[in-house]
Structures are given as structure tokens and as C-alpha cells.
Amino acid sequence: MPIIHVLAQAAVAAAPPGQAAVISYPAAFFTGQQVANASEMLARLPGFTLDTGSSVRGFEGAAGNVLIDGQRPASKNDNLEEILRRIPAGQVERIDVIRGAAPGIDMQGKSVLANVIRKSGGGFRGLYAAAINHLWDGRNMHAMRLELSGGDGTRTWEATARYGYGNDDGGSDGRRVFIAGDGTLLRQGQHRAEADGVQQVLTAAYAQSLAGGRIAFNGRAFWDSWKSEDTTRYGGGAPVANSTDPYDDFLGELGARFNRDFGRATKLELVALRNDRRYHAFDLYREGATTSDFRKRFSTSETIGRAVVKRQASPRLSLEVGGEGAVNTLASHSRDFENGVAAPLPAADVRVRETRGEVFGKATWRPAPRWTLDGSLRYEASKITSRGDVTLGKTLRFLKPRVAVSWDARADTQVRLRFERVVGQLNFDDFVAGADFASGRGVSAGNPDLDPEQAWVSEAALEQRFWKSGAVTLTWRHSRLSDVIDRGPVFLVTGEVFDQPTNIGGGTKDELTANLNLPFDRFGWRGALLRAEVNRRRSRVTDPTTLTARHISRLRPTEWNVHFSQDLPTRGASFGFDAYSGWSEESFRYNYVSDVKLHNVYVNAWTEKKLRPDLTLRVEFANVARRGIRIATKVYDGPRNSGRLAYLDDRDLKGGHSLYVRVRKTFGA
Question: Other C-beta atoms within 10 Å of 105: how many?
Fold first, then answer.
């Protein structure tokens, strides 16, 4: 993340805190709250939920809902939450929350946006942290982190080095049963799953004045090595089933941003970004004399150029025009061996090139003190070519209008409406073949001949703020979908059938979200805060195999989370808990349906204590309720529309507790 320091007055000159659409939370708002960085400060803001953005290609559509000094971070691969954690709370002057829209602020297509304004000035600062996570099975996962930053107010720099060993919560032990279609028990055994690995990250950034403006550079290198092992031991002398799935992943990023003001009303922004990825994995399954060996490697690259001109036409009207161009490439190579013999595999060797361009215009207007209109029109065109096992070439064009209206019914009540055409971006992972032997899903084919999913989205939100930091928000969203990307069969001339990503036609999706931020100060319980969110979803599409109605694969109907914190400022301490609901999601393939359920509530209890002003200890007890996972897969002896139920693969697995301890030391200004 580049440190692009813009003076707070300039960053929000077009949207001063006095406007109803912009609510400022100065550093004093967080007094008495045990917050260490900007991420923890944002978590305490009423009515705000962090959106870290999407991992789609391009820059415009990947934005999160946080600006830093009026600018969006120029990095795509550096997680927004990680960037915010690197901003110490002592360096934050205030956080402005923009609800609906405000002149001079690019909402990035979001209904609510936060702008973190940092203090001016420089000085050397640093942080060192070390942590260990003791797991229920005796493994110890450790991690370390070093952050350094400095500057003189004109030149600024920062660097981060981090590595850590971690485990996958899905690694659990329990019962596995196979039941025939007529209810007969085929076999049963004990299943054990274990997944862990190490991640390493290096980031660096530098910024200074140049040519009447400011230029910033950023770089990031990320290494991820991971391994999953699944073993099932059956009774009666049956052979042991074992699956091993390691991978190595590297992502590199270089970026630059140049900003310059031309007078008080016109601003120019230029962004250049380059991302490269190298991925290698294999999935090996053994059961007695039977072996399946799937191998995959691919490389991707993305080159982005972007230019935006912003004009403050009047205190109530701001305009923005710009364009973005990107070139994306993919080269993949996959192989499948069954009992040592190479098996046919669709789209095993594919080379894809995508050239995409987008132009856009945006306007934000406040016709009256209580009304704000935010509109944009984007036109996107792309050309995709594929060589290798799949040869194709096609051009896609989309017009994407958006209009959002916000009305401040009262000083503490706001209504927001949005209507927009959303066009998703194709995921290169869908172009590449894959395998998942541990779950019994086997090999799936890649499909470079996909069209992006599109949706006409209608959204309405009602936000009610109360007391000092209380808020409740209710949001309803309806999406009318076309070219939905789900799963379907592909038939080879040799007779083999594979599952693959495919466009399955149109459909609908409805989402209802409720958010609550409840401080307890009014009840005499000072320093206590409860935050909660509930999501309800439903959808309807046509199954490409059975031609009957169903919901979208892996769409979770209900999810909720609750977070409680108690600050004890006189003791330099805080404690609390985080609770996450269980959930259920179904995946539909041409010859099976898999239902994954996380049962029980995941609870994490924590406490944090300042041993000294510069030294903090945190202790967490995770998975208090020992949440488990149940995976029930109905496998058919052919396509689901004509085949019979062959067997049910039912796994009921339990996770375990873990104890996490972290020490964090800060130094410098």
C-alpha cells in the first residue's frame, strides 16, 4: 500500500463534515476504547461494515469501501484489512463516514464509504508482534510480524515483513459412512483431516512530491505453501483411503499512482499496476490398489493502466470522467492419471488472453440539503482469445448504468435507494481443470468459453442512528440475473462425462441484511458494545441437468454474527467474544449433490491487556463450542435426471479448541 498523505482539509474539501451525508468521528470518539489501529477503529463505527473488495481482474470493480486520505489504496493483492491494521490508531486524525454519496467523493459503487484521515507530519514508527496458536491435536502454529514506517512529511516510506504458520478450521476428525440408495450400509470408518501451511509476505511503499503533484510506488511479494491430508480407515480389513493435496502459490505486485491538483477544482489521478501469479498443485488419492493423480500448474498476469479527471463544478456538484485498460493472460497445464494411465481431460492445456477497456463518467449532485443523487455510466468492451485444447475468440460489450439516491429524512435517519446493472468478471480459475478427491468429487473440467454473469440490482436501505454510537440498518437487495455461472456436464466423444463451470441461464436472487451497533452506556454499562449482523438469502435458477428450479450453488440461506467488547480504560484492558452462526450450502453437479453444514456456533473468547504503553498482550480461546462440519453427498450412477442414487457419502466431523497468544510491541513516534 503506498502512503499517499493528503492533508485532511484537501481530502474532504468537497465534502465537509457538516454535510448530512458525511459524519465525522474524530480521534476523541475512540477515547476509552482499546483500539490499536484503523481496522479496529472502523469496527467500532455505527452502521459501518467493512467490505474488503473483490478479487476480480481490473481496478475499478475490485474496490473496497474504505479510502485512506481520500484515496483508494493502489494495491489489489494487499488485503484492505491488512492495510488498515498497519495504520496505528495514534496516527488517525478522524474517520469520515459517507452515507449515500457526497460531492467530490468517488463512492466506488458502494452505499456507505469510510475515509480514514491521517495526521500530517512524519517520524519513525514501528511494530513487532509474535504469536503462537496451540491446537487441540498438539500442533503449535507460530507467526511473526515487523512493520516500519517513517518520513519527514514530504517523503514517506513503509515496509512490512510477515510470516506465519496456520491451520484450516476444516481439518477435523469424525465418522464417515457410505449408505446405498436402498438404505443398506456399505461401509463405515473414522475420518481424519488435517490442513496446514506457511505464508510469507513482504510489502514496501514510497511516496514523494513530483511535478507539482505526488507520486507513490508500492510492491508486494506473497508466498503460500499449503498441504491438506485426508485419511479414512474402515473396519473389516478394508483398505485405507488417503488423499494428499499440497500446493505452492506465489503472487507479485508492483504499482504506481500519481496525483496532481490543477487549481482548487480539478484533480488528476493516474494508476499503473502489474500483478503476476505462479501456482502449482497436485492431488493424489490412494485406496488399496486404486490411485488417482491430478496435477495442475498455471501462471497469470495482469497489467492495468487507469486515468481519472475529477472536477468540482460547484459545492453541490462534482463530475468525474476516466478510462481503464487491462491486459490479462493465463497459461495452464493439467494432467490426470488413473492407476498410472493418462486419462482424457477437457481443457487440460489452455492459453487465454483478455484485452479489456472501460470508459466511464460519474456525477454527484446535492439538489437540496437532505437529498443526494449519485449517477454513473460505464461502457466496457473486452476481447478474449483462447488457444491450446480450446480455440476460440469472442468480443463482449456491456453498458453499465448506475443511479443512487439518498434522503436524510431526519438528522439521524437516512433512506438509500440504488439501481444498477452489475456485470461480473470472468474468473480465470473457472478456465482451468481441477480436482477434489478428498470430498469424492473427482476431476472437473475447465471452461474458457464462459460469459460473465450479469444482474440488474435494486437496493433499498434504511439506517437509524441513535445515542452517541448506536445504529440499526436494514438493507434489501433484489438481483435479476442472466448468464448465471454455475455447474453443468460436458460430454466427450470418448464417452466420458465431466463436470465444469457453465452459464445456466437467468434467475433471481434476494438478500435481506440487518446490522446493529448497540452501546450500553445509556444503561450505565460504560465501555460495553454489541455489534450484530444477520443475512437472509434466497435464489432461483434452472438446473442444467434436471431442468427443474433450484437455488444457486453454494449460496448460504442464513448467516449471522455477534461481537461483544468491554473496554476497561482505567485498567488498560478489554475483553469480549465473537460468535458466528453455523450455515448450510448445497453444491449441484451433474451426478451428485453435496450439502455442507457447519453446525454449532463458532465462539471465540478474547482478552487484551496493555502491560506497558508500548506492549500489549492478547489471549484468545477459539472454537469454544467445538463447532463441527457435516458433509452429505448424494452420488448418482449417471446424470441426476436419469440416474439412480448410487450411495450417500456422509461425514460428521468435529473440530477442536485452540489457544492463541500474541505479544505486540510498538516503538518510535
Answer: 23
Give, for 10, the enclosing helix (H) or strand (E).
helix 8-11
- The whole-angstrom separation of Cα 189 and Cα 212 is 70
CA nearest neighbour of 371 among 402, 409, 401, 403: 409
Q: Check: CB of residue 539 under 8 Å from CB of residue 553.
A: no
Residues contacting residue 495 through CB under 8 Å, at least 6 positions apart: none
| CA separation for the pair 260, 14 (Å, rounded) | 16
* Across 226-247, average pLDDT: 89
- Supply 599's cell numbers: 453446525
**Mean of the pLDDT values across residues 622-651?**
91
Q: Which of 50, 60, 4 is nearest to 425 (CA)?
A: 60
> In the predicted model, is pLDDT for residue 5 greater than 80?
no
Q: What phi-psi label fits residue 494: left (phi over 0), alpha (psi between -120 and 50 degrees) or beta?
A: alpha
Residue with grid cell 483411503, as numbered in its chain:
241
d(Cα 427, Cα 433) in Å, to the nearest integer?
13
> Alpha-carbon dihedral of residues 387, 391, 392, 393, nearest 10 degrees?
30
| DSSP, res 30 | G
DSSP string for 568-591? EGGGTEEEEEEEE--EEEEEE-SS
**CB-side neighbour CA atoms (13 Å) of 578:** 9
Instruction: Please give the share of the chain, as a percent, with pLDDT higher than 90.
Output: 59
257 band by pLDDT with thresholds 50, 70 and 90 = very high
Summary count for the chain: helices (H), strands (E): 3, 37
| pLDDT 10s digits, 146-198 | 999 988 878 989 999 999 999 876 567 899 999 999 999 999 999 888 889 99
Would you put residue 40 in left (φ > 0), alpha (ψ -120 to 50) or beta?
Answer: alpha
Q: Does an H or E element contain 83, and which?
A: helix 80-85
Of the ranges 133-137, 555-559, 597-601, the best mean pLDDT one: 555-559
For residue 127, give the 3-state DSSP assignment: strand
pLDDT (0 to 100) of residue 68:
86
Checking if the pLDDT of 275 tops 50, the result is yes
Domain 8-137+152-668 in CATH 3.30.70.380 = no
Q: How far apart are CA 209 and CA 475, in angstroms?
A: 42
Q: Average pLDDT over the chain, rounded to whole? A: 88
- Residue 99, classified by CB atoms within 10 Å of its CB into exposed (0-12), middle (13-18) or buried (19+), is buried
pLDDT at 169: 65
CA angle centred on 657, ends 651 and 661, rounded to 5°:
145
Which residues on adjacent β-strands are paired with residue 456?
421, 480
